[in-house]
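Much of what follows relies on a compact textual record of a protein's fold. A complete example follows; check for yourself that the lines match position by position.
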Amino acid sequence: MSSPEEQAFRLLTEYSNGFMVSQVLFAACELGVFDLLAEAPEPLGAAAVAARLGTSSHGTELLLDTCVSLKLLQVETKTGKALYQNTELSSTYLVRASPKCQGNMLRYLARTTYLCWGHLTQAVRDGRNQYLEAFGVPSDQLFSAIYRSEDERLQFMRGLQDVWSVSGRPVLGAFDLSPFPLICDVGGCSGALAKECTSLYPACQVAVFDTPEVVQTAEKHFSFPEAARISFCAGDFFKDPLPEADLYVLARVLHDWTDERCSRLLARIHGACKPGGGVLVIESLLAADGRGPLTAQLYSLNMLVQTEGRERTPAQYRALLAAAGFRHVQCRRTGGLYDAILATR
């Protein structure tokens, strides 16, 4: 049995190697390992995987065995030969054909978020995001930096499609939203959350409100079987009139902004609300003391390197909502990555 000192050193080593784990996941996704194994009629050996992917046998074997240790793949040995296949985890979340595949978001994390995190030390020193350092793009207009090219905008929007395919229904079902037949998803991006909403609440209609560039990209690249119940409106939610609605949804929006800008946006929404109307805030909630859960803390640091904002505690959101004029505020933790806050007039 290892000593406490050895256990502490092992833990430190696991922390310092964390970036390697994410790179294994990113590389396997980019190379198409999980898609190849999903399409194969039987488990494959490393040489067969390498031949079909056009990769080196040595590197492929190392990558596959590491994926086994990470429970992304499983292996069986037949006549001395290792044969690999997907696990339930990778079949559900890493195979392109799966409706819950997270591949687009993983590509965004690998190509954008990971590079920003390389400048975390400077972000802590400066207290600002790192787009200029990572990509040479000024970020005085935040979403001009985030959507710095059409390809980047499309990748981010596809990533959010992935996120809401898994997390959308739990947050939209945290409260009964059926009393709100007309919903506006403010900053609703590709309309992915709107799709989940119309599926969960068959009587509702959803207007997705986002910038003209995002709306144009959504209408060009994304399909909407529920087109009769989902519409798009273009504008700046800090300046332009908001669409009329019984309920406004802010999903992964407030965490992008400072308290001052959140207050401005919430005040605008309060002013647009009908009597009995409200706002549904969807974010990763920190614990009451701000020291957990770890995922929310990491997301908050991610807001530092990529946006102007942060993740917040329930009390901090209650304070922002109260200051905007909302008097009835309820918080619900979903047990997933995102939680829900419903505030009404």
